[in-house]
């Protein structure tokens, strides 16, 4: 302290020269560092201590100085740091630099001790410095505290296991707990890990403080990224701590500008940290939460600043004994009355109708000059800013004007009509009608519009627009287009199939007979549509085609292609799509009836010999379908078969024959007989036909005797085929019980 | 860089008057530059004195040409002659070309302002003179060699050569660290904060990162540069006060706010500053080099 001032100035100048030297060439560092240590040590003047601490911080942070040299320099420097700290040092700048130096030294010393277990003294000194820093951290002035937080981050980073990139080359691995051997003489892994876990909690503690210190929070947030990136084991803990932290909740009113700056900075820094993590690892398991957090931050930031600005505007104390602050806020200011000028004189036009401004410059401006996207960009945000009441006023004003015009013009028209009497012919009407695209426009409106057109032909001079006739399609093209349309409907069918089944069943039950085909957009509706497309739409056309002869017939008609597709569609999954089959066949059958009826009428009416023929589709397709899936039926599909046979509109002999053919397969004999028995019991019109078939089966197939015999004895006891077999029947029925079939 | 080429007279509002470019630009220094240099020289002796503490600054914009360089000029040319370095965060240096789709593109760190100046003046001197690009480049080449990319900066690497090359503001930044980074656009602030996280905070050196939102044109850059200088002066005042309070006069002598450290005062300083410049939205955080 007794050194004269100019002496210190000289010394500093010398030291600066030394610093210039090492900055120019890092090779001088060892020499200089060891040389300056005594000059800047614990007992020297403040200026020198400051310079020294600053220089040490710079030295051990420098990327130019190799790790090995730093390690060599460390022991001496450690001792000096410890001495200065234990002075005890009170100068903020010196403390700040020393803590920075310690943070840089910590990994170096740690690594040194890992490799040189015998050098316990260095570790002891380092630990003493660490304890001193941690103990005094909370009483340190703010700038030093910030550096302490960084020091803790360094310690945590060192004392948490990191990645071992190459176990064979330990010198390449990053300094972390993972490089410490299990049986190390000085370093005990569990202790170090426990310590770092505690320190991490202390570091993350800033996020739980009632009132956040923005500096400490920002400093912490900004140093967490390397920990998250390189220390898997604690990454999620850190991220979760950040995700729990909402800066706006950790500040207290009043919201001074300083507080707002702080909140904004903490929010932006937290966001920057999370974005940094997400950028590094876009598939992070916590990605969803991080994104939600980022969004929430953006929102809360707006709220806080808005709140704050609004609150500042209000008076602090009630002015009339009552707290009218709330009232003032609830009763929103009455919106400014819009000044509506009377409509511009002259013939009424839409632009005059909607012009609410008196500014001639504005009203003469042609908006069409602006490109449409620019207009959109202007109009959309503008609309969102317009007050509801102002908009309402403007709309009312326009409506009033409109009604006035309408009234005037109606009056005018009546007068004209009266004047023009009968020669007035509204020749404009048919012309105008096709233009009137939207039927939404009320009659009155269209009448008025027409009126306007009539009165001001030069204003609304759009003539009727007629699309040019498209070139005629060839038949192939038409067929192609038709088929592609059908394919799209099938697409809908497939899409609708995925819709939940129970809901479908429910709605069907509810509708019952009141159901209209195609009223609900479910699978059934689409299948009805398809079936009708196939049956009704081309009805009658095919007759012509038949008449035209083979040349045309060679191409499949659109109806047949639909049928073919439907057929294939059903066979793909006949159990599930049986109801589509039934819908379809019903439509076919009905269509056949209708066709025959109309053909009969024609014949009656014309009395000519042309004799229109009706192509009947039901039989063909019913048997084809049956053929299609009979082969795949197994003995347990009785429900499928019975449903099909009972719900198709008509049973024909070909159908029963096909059913009978099932009996060829001994396994499906029962299927055959039971489905026939069902028809006999519940389908009286087909009973005789079916009994005949049962007789046939009984006669042809031995295996069917027991079951078929029973049916015959019950329904046709007088059957001639029965007698010779009657004696056998009871015996075989014992061996093959029929009723046990599910 | 998003200059508006339609603002033909924008060049006239840049800090230096626009005389035709001197054929050998080194020989004739422009008026402002001369005064800046004088200020720098006069402040040099003070710099060596122990009590003249100065914060070290870093200015950042997209291309290290307009906004960050204007701020660089203001800070290094101020009476206090702050130590200052400057960077761009873009991937390339982009200067406006003959149309919006034909920018002039250069790479960072390897192209000098002088090269750009020569190239553009040979391409279309009238155009680049009238949109102010040549004036800007001329200013820049008097300040330092060429645009540097922030992401390529390794903090802590000595910048002695910049000092020897005569970069303005190089005195005090030899150590390759700064106390304050000021960006001129939120995008750049995000990039800087993100990049500092990526750099790994290995120096354990705290740095205040500010953003002052400045539109990318000559007038705004000038206004913004002055505002940045104001902010820098306020920050430096607080830092000097801290050094003094905690220095020879003794820690115990100060009371209340006087004992507050520089760091603690930063949010307050920024809030005050923001009240004064409501049109330059600001942002701040405390990061690590």
TrEMBL record, chain A:
It is found in: Nucleus. GO terms for cellular component: mRNA cleavage and polyadenylation specificity factor complex. Pfam families: SYMPK_PTA1_N. GO terms for biological process: mRNA processing. It comes from the Eukaryota. Residues 408-429, 721-742 are annotated as: Disordered. Residues 91-311 form the Symplekin/Pta1 N-terminal domain. Residues 723-732 have a biased composition (Low complexity). Keywords: mRNA processing, Nucleus. InterPro entries: ARM-like, Symplekin/Pta1, Symplekin/Pta1_N. Its main location: nucleus. This is Symplekin/Pta1 N-terminal domain-containing protein. It comes from Penicillium coprophilum.
From TrEMBL, chain B:
Keywords: Hydrolase, mRNA processing, Nucleus, Protein phosphatase. Its EC number is 3.1.3.16. It catalyses: O-phospho-L-threonyl-[protein] + H2O = L-threonyl-[protein] + phosphate; O-phospho-L-seryl-[protein] + H2O = L-seryl-[protein] + phosphate. GO terms for molecular function: RNA polymerase II CTD heptapeptide repeat phosphatase activity. It comes from the Eukaryota. It is found in: Nucleus. PANTHER family: RNA POLYMERASE II SUBUNIT A C-TERMINAL DOMAIN PHOSPHATASE. This is RNA polymerase II subunit A C-terminal domain phosphatase SSU72.
